[in-house]
Amino acid sequence: MSKNVVIIGTQWGDEGKGKIVDLITDKVSSVVRFQGGHNAGHTLVIDGQKTVLHLIPSGILRDHVECLIGHGVVLSMSALIKELGELDEAGVDARSRLKIAPGCPLIMPYHVALDNAREAKRGKAAIGTTGNGIGPAYEDKVARRGLRVGDLLDLKAFSDKLKDVVEYHNFALTQYYNAPALDFDTVLAQALEQAKTVIPMITDVTEQIHQHIANNENILFEGAQGALLDIDQGTYPFVTSSNTTSGGAVTGSGVGVTDIDYVCGIVKAYTTRVGGGPFPTELVYDVAIDKGDAIGKVLGTVGHEFGATTGRQRRCGWLDMVTLNRSLKLNAVTGICLTKLDVLDSLESIKICIGYDLNGQKITTPPYDAQGYADAKPTYIEMPGWKTSTIGTDSFDSLPIEAQNYIRKIEELSGLPIDILSTGPDRNETLILNNPFKE
Ligand code: GDP
Ligand code: IMO
Ligand code: MG
């Protein structure tokens, strides 16, 4: 029997999804991205060589894998062409194995302009977006005015629609945001040029996926961002604009809920967040001035916690079981993949947040809004550290007992098994305890 596995981030992104997707694609015929866009930054390290992917599925480094971009993804042709160029340079032939759904909303230059104008206007309350036009592109989709990849198949109609949309957004840009207008002719000329690369890749991705299922082939669905950035369930408004939870794999690709056999929840052994918004277990440290919490500094430095897309410093803190347990439910996680355990190697002791104190009340479920999170004071349990290197551990039993206890504690608090353990960035620094594709 073939299996369909979804991989999603359970925190605020950057849990190590790309590494795990690349690792277990040895067992699949195709990898499908189903939401988000080039706001994602997925890092793959193979024998020390690093590749960062934003839009192209993390199966691309395996020659036998077909890479599919489902209609839930917002597609920037500029970002796609840049990434294809980078892969060309690295000698990876992506073009013949990449297929794009006609239903993907296009991210156009006015989306980027709007994203940046809005963030500037928000000032201190800025979301800290990637500035890639993700939110405005999803808005155009929901408003039913957006251009889609399939529109490129009729360039005359594309050009007519584009004229209206540019006019509409130029009004907001100039009249509301006091920003410069975009020139329609320039936007059109650039899109027509870029379309030449994209058009040959347009495929009925939904049908393609169902063909693979009919052929009894394994498929991997690759999530972007993390559950706490989900537009509906995340720390609104400090979220991204798509459904980052496992349900997004269904709506963003064209399979049904019962087609999914296993959901792998990627959990970083601590927590990070990039951009604005509440973060109850944060250990505040500012790398620019080298000031703040000493453990926050260790996590950020040892874990190289800098954004793979924007280069921004990622905020770091302890593992938070309140948000994590909610996240595991939202995604119907089957098994956990715990990553970056090695980053904790030097710590004397390690904390896990097991509840919040909210205005004098003890709670173990997350508040419903960003203000609630901002007011929540975490309560912790503390466990001894192991102060030994775990990098590249090749068996569970050879881990120091304190590390085994930390892992067992997470299993106990979540009620789920840890099926994969990652103890280093490299593809082979991983312990697969229970392969999601196992029959
Ligand atoms: P993604 O967005 O979820 O794919 O994660 P990112 O690639 O943005 O960030 C994860 C970072 O951690 C990358 O730099 C990875 O190379 C690195 N990484 C992944 N797993 C491990 C691990 O187990 N240990 C260490 N030290 N680094 C890891
Ligand atoms: P991967 O797939 C971490 C964050 C941004 C910002 C918020 C909204 O690598 O885990 P957007 O540009 O999406 O409108 O920004 O979401 N964000 C991410 N944070 N990892 C990501 O992707 C992210 N993609 C978006 O920093 O706070
Ligand atoms: Mg990332």
From TrEMBL:
Q: Which UniProt keywords apply?
A: Cytoplasm, GTP-binding, Ligase, Magnesium, Metal-binding, Nucleotide-binding, Purine biosynthesis
The reaction(s) catalysed by this protein are:
IMP + L-aspartate + GTP = N(6)-(1,2-dicarboxyethyl)-AMP + GDP + phosphate + 2 H(+)
Q: What does this protein do?
A: Plays an important role in the de novo pathway of purine nucleotide biosynthesis. Catalyzes the first committed step in the biosynthesis of AMP from IMP.
In the record, biological process GO terms are:
'de novo' AMP biosynthetic process; IMP metabolic process
Kindly state what the record says about how the cofactor is bound. Binds 1 Mg(2+) ion per subunit.
Subunit structure, interactors included: Homodimer.
Residue positions annotated to bind GTP are 13-19, 41-43, 314, 340-342, 422-424
What organism does this protein naturally occur in? Candidatus Thioglobus autotrophicus
Q: What is this protein called?
A: Adenylosuccinate synthetase
* Key word Membrane present: no
Q: So where does IMP get bound?
A: D14, E15, G16, K17, N39, A40, G41, H42, T130, R144, Q225, T240, R312
Q: Which CDD domains match?
A: AdSS (cd03108)
The cofactor(s) it depends on are: Mg(2+)
Pathway assignment reads: Purine metabolism; AMP biosynthesis via de novo pathway; AMP from IMP: step 1/2
| Pfam families noted in UniProt | Adenylsucc_synt
Active-site residues are: D14, H42, K141
